[in-house]
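Memo to structure team: turn this sequence into structure tokens by end of day. - J.P.
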Amino acid sequence: RHYTEHSGRGWLTPAAQALGATESQLEVIGGWRSKSSRSYMRTVGPKMHLIQAEVARAVRAAWPQDKPLFVRLSATDWFDDEPRGFTVDEAVEVSRWLAQEGVDVIDVSSAGNVPESRPQYGRMYQVPFAERIRFEAEVPVMAVGGIQGLDHAHTIVAAGRADLCAIARGFLADPYMVQREAVRRGVEGHALPPQYLAAKTVR
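Reply from structure team:
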């Protein structure tokens, strides 16, 4: 089991408000920044995500040390060419800080902070963000987004682009994806519900 602190898509903002964050801090944490709040970010530097680091530190202290702690980040608001929004460069830096606070894995998503974001959806479309954080921040990452099946996941991990993959819509379309793959690969240790044991050999 692991614990995921969802810091992407504006989910951290209510916690920051409860901890007394200023309006400028909330703009930075939430990802939507005007030119003035960009200036604030540059002035504050590593303290930009102080509240995010405090949340991660508090969770790490409460969560058992032998269990992994994940943090989900929106790696970009897809405004990287404009003077607003959270960027991949900043996601790399924040990932480094989170790793220093004891975070084990960065779960790399994108957008979701503001409705103006226009992600370029496609197969494995967020994997490049995970790959960059993995190599530049030197922290384990989980890729997510447009990973449509186990072939995609195998390819991503084997190529060293991510350490883990998360699949959502693929499981909606095929809830027995893992069971079938385990049978196909002869993985004996994979647990199956008792009601499904009779179908274990079905491929």
